Fold this protein.
Amino acid sequence: MSRPPGKILVRPVVTEKTSTLQYEGTNAAQRARHADRERSVRPKYTFEVSPDATKIEIRKAVEQLFDVKVLRVRTMNCRGKDRRVGRSVGRRPHWKKAIVEVAEGEMIDVFEGV
């Protein structure tokens, strides 16, 4: 890895939707509800990452920083929204989001150090 993990992972994305993804695989009732599927439901964590980061770099950074086994990384480029203040029109910056799926039974404490 050419860059340190702190340069690849910018910040965790904490919203109501990402919170449900985190705890989806840890709740016994949720697992029972999804028992009919062929694969079990695992916890997923969402991070804002560097725009030029690859999936392999993201996987290695998460494994190194949080000491977990990463099974899958999904990425998406989010376009910045147009914003207005009075007459002037600006634009929020574009950013990249990564959804990281970890092995069953492993957790990342997102609020650590907050």
The CA atoms of residues 26 and 105 lie 7 Å apart.
